[in-house]
Amino acid sequence: MKRYKLAAIPGDGIGPEVISAGLQVLDALVAYEGSFALDVETFPWGSDYYQRHGVMMPSDGLHRLRAFDAIYFGAVGSLEVPDHVTLWGLRLAICQGFDQYANVRPTRLLPGIESPLRRVAAGDLDWVIVRENSEGEYAGQGGRTHRGLPEEVATEVSIFTRVGVTRILRFAFELARKRPRRHLTLITKSNAQRHGMVLWDEIFQEIAGEFPDVSTAKELVDAATQRMVLKPRSLDVMVATNLHADILSDLAAALAGSLGVAATANLNPEGRFPSMFEPIHGSAFDIVGKGIANPVGTFATAVMMLEHLGESAAAARLSGAIETVSASGVRTPDLGGTATTAQVTAAVCAAIAASPPHA
Ligand code: GGG
Question: What is the mean pLDDT of residues 43-57?
Fold first, then answer.
């Protein structure tokens, strides 16, 4: 029997609630499949850890995670610790430390969920946003001088390297090639940002020649937002910088009903380091402890993780169970329902147990 080592980092806010739900569903899946096992170790890193130790994770944190096959991450962000400290101390420390340069964010309308867009049916909204995840606006370059004085200066420098841009664009083309529509939209702001964004345009043009089977389009990020709202069917795979794609994927999730259903994978595609899987939502302080956090994004994240591990049959079963429960109307309040996290989790576990065995 195959055994996978899984590091769980529930993190902050509703992170522990949704990761606990995700692990329950994974347990149900493992029990049903019987062909693989997950050895889970949970790491109590995050803002509470910071309050006690002054760091979001210990200095040997990456070294300890290195031996795992995958990382299952909840959320980061707290009312007590500044956001830039929590983000850089944990999520970005792992993404950048493990060179997880490809952040994949699929969005699809689940059965029974109504989009806030009028006249949008399930097949109309089926996108994957590829977010560059190692540099760009998140390069961490810049600084502040003359603090507190009227002359104070702050710089936030975006770094775009040929290596970084080439590898994410090639990744996006490869991904687009595997989808039925084979269409890739490059999203930049190369009219205003005339250095880095023009480099993206040029490299995109160069690489497109290697993928004659993938149709392409280019869109400025502002225009992309209205295309997503007004002509959702015209989009398939989108690729954009770290910041642009982060913003676009929140919009995408909202158009699919709720941030609570959206999943993401932070991939080191070459497998030199473990990859990390997380719901795209943050810690959602407003609902912590109420038992109503939507666990569907964390379940969909588990689907991506199982696919990454090579457990495609289990991934398909879990995906089917999520759809069954979504169609049945068992939903948390963010989707207009009245179910609790525990009720959605129990319904997905029951749907797994009731699913037909593999042919
Ligand atoms: N599970 C995703 C998460 O916790 N995100 C927190 C956050 O603030 N992310 C901002 C970013 O990654 O750009």
Answer: 98
User: Does pLDDT of 301 surpass 80?
Assistant: yes
Determine whether domain 1-101+263-359 maps to CATH 3.40.1000.70.
no
Q: In what order do the strands lie in the sheet with 36-42?
A: 36-42, 2-11, 70-75, 275-279, 263-267, 102-108, 126-132, 237-240, 183-188, 215-220
**Is the Cβ atom of 75 under 6 angstroms away from ligand 1?**
yes
For position 359, what pLDDT does the model report? 60
For ligand 1, atom 10, which residue shows the shortest CA distance?
87
Task: Kindly report the average pLDDT of the chain as a whole number.
Answer: 97
Does ligand 1 lie within 6 Å of residue 248's CB atom?
no
- Verify whether ligand 1 is closer than 6 Å to residue 246 (CB atom): yes
Report the phi/psi class of residue 271: left, alpha or beta, with left for phi > 0 and alpha for psi in -120 to 50: left
70 and 308 Cβ atoms separated by less than 8 Å: yes
Q: CA-CA distances (angstroms) from residue 110 to 107, 182, 308, 336?
A: 9, 22, 22, 14
Task: Name the one residue in this structure whose structure tokens are 């994004």.
Answer: 297
Q: How far is the CA of 209 from the centre of ligand 1 (A)?
A: 34
Confirm or reject: Cβ of 136 under 6 Å from ligand 1: no
CATH number of 114-255: 3.40.718.10
Q: Decide if 1-101+263-359 and 114-255 have a common fold.
A: yes
Show the tokens assigned to 310.
């090579």
**175 CA to centre of ligand 1 in angstroms:** 23
Is pTM beyond 0.85? Reply is yes
The residue nearest atom 6 of ligand 1, judged by CA position, is 282
The type of residue at 30 is: V
What is the gyration radius of the CA atoms in the chain, in angstroms?
Answer: 20
Pocket test for ligand 1, best of 9, 87, 92, 248 (most atoms within 8 A of CB): 87
Domain boundaries, the chain: 1-101+263-359, 114-255
Residue-level pLDDT at 113: 94
Q: How far is the CA of 33 from the centre of ligand 1 (A)?
A: 32
